[in-house]
Design goal:
The chain has six helices and seven strands, in the order ααβββαββαβαβα. By secondary structure, it is an alpha+beta fold.
């Protein structure tokens, strides 16, 4: 995504492309781990965007860029993903104002090994035992599925100043006509994602 630097001075000032892919992933993981819960946004057949709060599993390794969710296969989000696999997952840390946005493709799986890898006892609380001998709310329940979001691009913002520093920067910029940018806007590009995925798959 390109920005007109003259007309969008905030983005031009905040963009920071001086980090390695591994450094950017490390900064991304800090946001995801601190926030814990993101908003998964899907598109319905009618074109409406629907978001819901979901907690990803992990990250489970230092180079992970994909997001993995355990979810109920009969919920509406699966129908929407099957209609249009393009999704967004966003995270916002209110305590720091850091945020992250994943744009990518969602893949659905009911692979038993993959479910077992990411299952935890706490996950069962979202399914419940229906007492029919089949839908038991455990990892063998046919409702259980994995949603894996494979990003095409990840953008995130990290503050470089305290809240007081941010307020001073914004106030100063408002008075002087300068552009406030109390943080860094980082992009993990598709090429960088593919590079990392290629290294981790070997």
């Amino acid at each position: 995504m390109s920005a007109n630097k003259k007309l969008d001075p905030y983005t031009a000032k905040a963009e920071d492309n001086n980090h390695t892919p591994q450094e950017k992933i490390q900064g991304l993981h800090e946001i995801v781990k601190n926030v814990k819960t993101g908003l998964l946004t899907t598109r319905s057949a009618s074109g409406h965007l629907h978001s819901r709060a979901m907690a990803p599993v992990g990250p489970v390794n230092p180079d992970q860029v994909n997001l993995v969710f355990i979810a109920n296969r009969v919920s509406n989000k699966f129908e929407e993903i099957e209609n249009d696999a393009h999704v967004n997952v966003s995270f916002y840390d209110e305590s720091t104002t850091n945020w992250a946005s994943y744009a990518g493709i969602a893949k659905i799986s009911q692979d038993k090994e993959k479910i077992a890898k990411h299952w935890s006892r706490a996950t069962a609380a979202w399914f419940g035992d229906l007492k029919d001998g089949v839908h038991k709310g455990d990892q063998t329940d046919p409702r259980v599925a994995v949603i894996e979001v494979i990003p095409d691009e990840i953008r995130y913002w990290v503050t470089t100043r305290t809240k007081v520093g941010q307020a001073v920067d914004i106030a100063y910029s408002a008075v002087t006509g300068h552009t406030a940018a109390p943080g860094e806007l980082r992009t993990i590009t598709k090429a960088e994602i593919q590079l990392v995925q290629g290294l981790t798959s070997k």
